Amino acid sequence: MTTAADAGAADTRYPGATAAQPSVVELSSAPDRGEAAARAEALFEEAFGYAPDGVWSAPGRVNIIGEHVDYQDGLCLPMAISHRCFAAAARTPTDRVRLRSAQDDLVLELDARDLRPGAVEGWPAYVAGVLWALRPHISGVSTQGMDIMIDGQVPLGAGLSSSAALECAAGEAIEALLSLGTSPLERVRAAITAETDFAGASTGGLDQSASVLSRAGHALFLDCRDFSTRAVPWDLASQGLALLITDTRAEHSHVDGEYTARRADSEAAASVLGIDTLRDADVEQLDELLGRIQDEVVRRRARHVLTEIQRVKDFDALLAAGTVRENVSALGALLNASHDSLREDYEVTVEQLDVAVDAARAAGAHGARMTGGGFGGSTIALVEADQAQIVAEAIAAAFAEHGFTAPEFFLALPSEGAGQDR
């Protein structure tokens, strides 16, 4: 998903994330889910002195294609990854909420009845904000007190949406503890509200949707206009393919301002064209539409959004027509075109992102692109599974040649959305 919060994650240590370690050319994988849940349970007992009622978790995500279009009612194709944020929690007979994190020394206690935007700062806002956002469903609940221990395995600052994983894990725990009866989509909306209205970060909803609604072995086709979704087969492992994530570890700078500017440019383009959002434009009339936009920068921003939405449609059509293997070249070409558009028209890449993509393509990747908000973060490359190591080594060598901080690599498997673990 494209969010200022996610793009700027280097500035806020979400407990649903783990700081990147010095990298070697090694393909990392997420900890075993059962073992990670047991660890969260043990951490809860150590912090609070009794056993939790349960452990819930939600995954980070990677967006396969459909970048910087969510806030224009566009189409996206994210998938959940196996790196997750865990929330061990228990209900208490009070209105006190106590929050702890395995990744932070902060100890926070607050009264659930006093929750309001601006009352909580830092990572706890992404947990408390979900409880606040679920208030319309809490009527009749006598008390809202709970103890929550957060333990995360989503890499920090990599553009893999540690914030959404944190919100959605908290949402699953709160739903279960208070027996609210909310639907998955209602919990998605609560997580979005927590991030935008309570924590004060900008989000289009892609991250939270992927974190809650994804299915193992599938990507999630998401219509950002009405939040309708459907599962799309994306079982790479069975077809000898892999999705290589490269965390460039590039430092983010001026991210919030740049994100806001891109959003404003796309809104300006829609205004010039006399439509509510660029999703309403007829891409078959692309040249005529772009010719009506006099500002050259705004024109390029519009071209990215319009063509990116079409690329998602084309990607989806290919997956409906056959397997990933059968259409791997065409799918890779769409990934390449997406990155080129983000680099040239939307201007949200940085040198590390471009070097990683170029090196992956040169090393034999079928396609590669940046993923997430840009200005740092990660890239993805669709590769032959037995070539993933070679592609990673090529990227690492290119980074060393440019004097960049060594990147970190992950193999992403399309994983299950949020749920209870213990």
TrEMBL record:
The UniProt entry, under InterPro entries, shows: Galactokinase, Galactokinase_CS, GalKase_N, GHMP_kinase_C_dom, GHMP_kinase_C_sf, GHMP_kinase_N_dom, GHMP_knse_ATP-bd_CS, Mevalonate/galactokinase
Q: What is its EC number?
A: 2.7.1.6
The residue ranges of the GHMP kinase C-terminal domain are: 323-400
Q: Which Gene3D superfamilies match?
A: 3.30.230.10, GHMP kinase, C-terminal domain
List GO BP terms, alphabetically. Answer: galactose metabolic process
Does the record carry Metal-binding as a key word? yes
Keyword annotations for this protein, in alphabetical order, are: ATP-binding, Carbohydrate metabolism, Cytoplasm, Galactose metabolism, Kinase, Magnesium, Metal-binding, Nucleotide-binding, Transferase
Query: Any keyword Transferase?
Result: yes
**Signal peptide coordinates:** none
One GO CC term of this entry? Answer: cytosol
User: PROSITE patterns given for it?
Assistant: GALACTOKINASE, GHMP_KINASES_ATP
Domain Galactokinase N-terminal residues, every copy: 43-91
| Any GO molecular function | galactokinase activity
Q: Out of the domains of life, which is the source?
A: Bacteria
Q: Where is the GHMP kinase N-terminal domain?
A: 126-214
Report the family membership: Belongs to the GHMP kinase family. GalK subfamily.
What is the designated name of this protein? Galactokinase
